[in-house]
Each structure stands twice: as C-alpha cells, then as structure tokens.
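Box 3.1 A note on notation
Throughout this textbook, protein chains are presented in two layers. The first layer is the amino acid sequence; the second is a token string describing backbone geometry. Keep the layers aligned when reading.
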Amino acid sequence: FKTQACLGYAFVNAVDPTGVQALWEVFDGSARWAASHKSVCRVTWSVPHQGLDVMVNRFRNSPIMHAQVADEFKPVLFEHGQRKAFPPP
C-alpha cells in the first residue's frame, strides 16, 4: 500500500459462456493502456477459485476489507457497468 502501485490483475465473471472466447481474444495480449506501460494483458482461468460467489467470499473475508484500508485498494463489484456494494464480512 505504501507505493500505491496496481498489482495488475482483475477478475471478470462472464455471465454468459458464449462470450468467453470473444472476451479472451480481445483482452489476451492487449497492451492498450491509458498510461505508457510495457505490461501485456494475459487472460487465464482463476484456479482454484471459480465463480462470482467464491471470489466474493474470498475477498469479503480478507484483511483487505478492514476499515483502515482505503476504499481505492478494496475490490469492487460492477453490474451492467454500475458499481454495486460489496457484501460485508
């Protein structure tokens, strides 16, 4: 948290399996960032954690959700492009 550097990952829960291949093709290998950066996006399956409920439970019971941790460092949920409340521990 001291450097406020992004760890460089995100979890995407595809609600329709028919869109997974297209999502994979668009994002895997992408290097189009708003700021100059050498990182390349790689898409992988989350192993061993799969599914939105599993990921939410993993993070909502994590020390990252402590009240002393600033909101910008906490995981967020979006639904239809709108941020929604993260379930409390």
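The mean pLDDT is 84. Strands lie at 77-79, 82-84.
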